[in-house]
Amino acid sequence: MRIGGDVPGFQPCEKCDYNWTSDANQRWILFAAKERGADIFETFSNSPPYWMTNRLWCSSGGQNYANNLNSDYYDKFADYLTEVVKWYKDEQGLTFRTLEPFNEPTTGYRGEFGSQEGCTYKYLAMSEVVNKVGAYLNKKGLSNTTSVSIADEGLFEGEITTIELFLGSWSSKDMSASIKLSEQILNDMRNLKPVAWVYWQVIEHAPNGNDGNDYGLIGADFSNSTTPLDIRLSFYGFAQYTKFIRPGYQIIFSNDGDTLAAQDASKKTLVLVCTNKNNASDVWNINVSKFNIKSFNAYRTSNNNETLKLLPNIWNITGGILTYESPANSITTWV
């Protein structure tokens, strides 16, 4: 299995006790995020424990892309997932808002034995497992705080209730990946209107750079912690959204397809994330007359050695119109 994908479970065999010290690295990340203010958590399963699968393999589809979860273990899998949720709540004081039993279950990426962690499911099997997971959450007194979430698909066509699109690599030394990522966020937030937009693979194993061959916003060497991190421009492009559009902000209408607008009415804060995807500079005229705004702080990510640069006052507001010349292939956020 690929490095970074060989993640241990909490029950190594059918008759084994739960090992709550397992998966120490990811548990460290979880609690480090909580200590730094994260307060919404989801737990998900790439694959059932190997001993519950038909192929006894955690990176596999069944034969001919059939279900890899053995139907004899539907109840045990639901019990296993909810027992993990219960342990974190009772013993660690951490509540998962959602529990997702599947990841990319219908993409067809996985043959009988592969290196990409995951498990293939058919829709009827997913429906049965979801019902069982819900029943076990209720049985264990967890249903008031944790609900079932499905299913993060790898392809739009396979999605049922949530959307996760992988349309290419987000890693590169120039702005191409940042623009691509920004356009995807814009499209999803403006058209699909999700309640959250969550990035999956912020850090990827990329010891030799691997630019263009992975989804990481940060490249790392998982086998050597002394290797310096490779922080890509796409990390800062993503930060144009995450740093300034905070939980609780309301997405508001903008008639420009390359702008995402959000506000926090209680703090009287307006945020505009503007993406110039063209290979030439462009003059933006943004009507902010409804907000009685006289000044902004502006931050830009571009090819001009700008990561999340606070800009000087290089714009003007006249008659409620904000005028600004945006460099080619850049993302600018106004706050």
Characteristic key phrases:
335 residues, alpha/beta, TIM Barrel, Immunoglobulin-like, 6-stranded antiparallel sheet, 3-stranded parallel sheet, 5 helices, 22% helix, elongated, Glyco_hydro_b, hydrolase, 6GAL-like, Glycoside hydrolase family 30 protein, hydrolase activity, hydrolyzing O-glycosyl compounds
Give a description of the structure:
This protein has 335 residues and is α/β, with parallel strands linked by helices. The protein folds into 2 domains: 1-165, TIM Barrel (Alpha-Beta Barrel), CATH 3.20.20; 167-196 and 231-334, Sandwich (Immunoglobulin-like), CATH 2.60.40. Helices cover 22% and strands 20% of the residues. The strands form 5 sheets. The protein has a 6-stranded antiparallel sheet, with helices on one face. α2 (74-92) packs across α3 (123-139). The longest helix is centred in the first third of the chain and has 19 residues, at 74-92.
Residue share in helices? 10-25%
Strand order of the largest sheet: 9-10-11-17-13-14
Report the oligomer.
Answer: single chain
Overall pLDDT metric: 85
Question: What is the β-strand count?
Answer: 17
Number of helices: 5
Question: Biggest β-sheet, characterized?
Answer: 6 strands, antiparallel
Q: How many distinct folded domains?
A: 2
Q: What is the general shape? A: elongated
- Low-confidence regions: 160-168
Tell me the CATH architecture of the largest domain. Answer: Alpha-Beta Barrel
Distance between the termini: 44 Å
* CATH top-level class of the largest domain: Alpha Beta
Radius of gyration based on Cα positions:
22 Å
What is the structural class?
alpha/beta
